[in-house]
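#structure-requests
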Amino acid sequence: MVKATASQFVQEKFDIIRIPYVKNVEQIDKIVTEAKENNAIICYTIVSPEMREAIAQRALEQDVEVVDILGPMLKAIEKTSGLLPKNQPGLIHALDHEYFKRVAAIEFAIKYDDGKNPWGLLKADLVIIGVSRTSKTPLSMYLANKQLKVANVPLVPEIPPPEELFKVPSKRVIGLLIDPHKLNEIRIARLKAMGLGDGANYADLRRINEELDYAKAIMQRIHCTIINVSNRAIEETASMVLEYLRKNFPDANH
């Protein structure tokens, strides 16, 4: 806001000095005094009503021009919404931290999607395993938006799972199963969307049962929790996973 305003005065170059973490009246006294000595304007984004009042009062006493940037916006939103502001400093920094954690989790999910790199399994908060079309990737991305680092591994009878999978603590692994007839419908729809016939082995019910039996055997070997995703939305499955994590890792920030 200050930069945008200063840019309108092209004939003059202004020095903009930023003073963060103003927490007490002593700091305010010093700032106002320096502003007075340097013929400066004070623009502030202080959330505490008491501190805003203090800076306005000190500035009035020393005849220093001040602009309260945040105060009118807080009052406008409070009046329109009927909600009260938290008046807690530093919340935007917490939001920034949450944002970057979410981005990192999403990048992790992409990097370690579909068993691309088994080295990521031991770094993951959660590893999801299951046969093709059990919503491993959408679930991983949904959980990544909850700041969880999730990797997923497809289970295919002809391809042994990576050895790293069996080194992951069983509580950190979730197995996804599905009704074979439901999976048959999903795979047929997938083949049609790709312009292929529905007679491929990929959608064959016998093949599907073979894959599911193989997946169950791997999950039993790992002793992981199993969720049946038949007729479940991603949000519902994710809610079950989050509840599972809360129960098994109560000290973690899930």
